[in-house]
Design goal:
By secondary structure, the protein is mainly alpha-helical. The protein has a single domain, classed as 434 Repressor (Amino-terminal Domain). A two-stranded antiparallel ribbon has the order 1-2.
Length: 83
């Protein structure tokens, strides 16, 4: 599924889990969500994320939001902001 137009955010969850030797199942359990939630993030299919879930993921992974979510195409992000 291609990203929607103007969407330039990529989730690095898979990379962060690998760096920490953690499985998606373990993350879901520690965050307190179903495995479907982080799975959607990992596969870059999320359209939204609750701040509380994002906060919990960052706490468990001991990372900052910018470590987890990155802009992959700056020009697309700039175009969207101006709209």
């Amino acid at each position: 599924m291609p990203p929607e137009e103007g969407h330039a955010i990529r989730c690095r969850l898979d990379e962060l889990l690998a760096e920490r030797g953690m499985t998606l199942t373990e993350l879901a359990e520690r965050v307190g969500v179903s495995i479907a939630n982080p799975s959607v993030l990992k596969n870059d299919r999320a359209k939204a994320i609750r701040f509380s879930t994002l906060t919990a993921i960052c706490r468990v992974l001991e990372c900052q939001v910018g470590d987890l979510l990155v802009i992959t195409n700056a020009s697309a992000a700039v175009d969207t902001v101006g709209a």
